[in-house]
Amino acid sequence: MQWLLAVFFVAAGILHFVVPAVYLKIMPPYLPWPLALVYASGLAEIGLGLLVLVPGWSSSAAWALIVLLVAIFPANLHMAINSHLFPQFSPILLWLRLPLQAVFIWWAYWFTRGERIARVAKVQERELKPWSND
Predict the structure, then answer these.
(1) What is the tally of structural domains in the chain?
(2) Domain boundaries, position 89
(3) Is residue 134 part of a domain?
(4) What does each of the 134 residues of the chain score in pLDDT, given as a tens digit?
């Protein structure tokens, strides 16, 4: 599942550079520098998607993905509210897409747990062996 999450975010990030016009249309008009934000979010998705696979970084990357997902939620909301700008998509699908954000947040959150559990286990092991040299 971790690889699938990584592939999803890396692919989505690449699309920001391949078809930036699609993402520009999604950007809420009140945000400054829309093209820079499209590229920055694409870079973040690629970088964090890769980092989620790196031991020692996966938990931090997963937390950063959660922050990113929260940060891009206004763009998804803008898309749903202004469905007339996206006639190629059903308005119902655009609204159903919003709760999907929570699924992705949960999916990323799942990978914040592994390293935390390992740290707790290591602390508990040290407490059981207080006179150990490691």
Answers:
(1) 1
(2) 2-128
(3) no
(4) 788 888 999 999 999 999 999 899 889 989 899 999 999 999 999 999 999 998 888 899 999 999 999 999 999 999 999 999 989 999 999 999 999 999 989 888 888 876 555 555 555 556 666 565 55
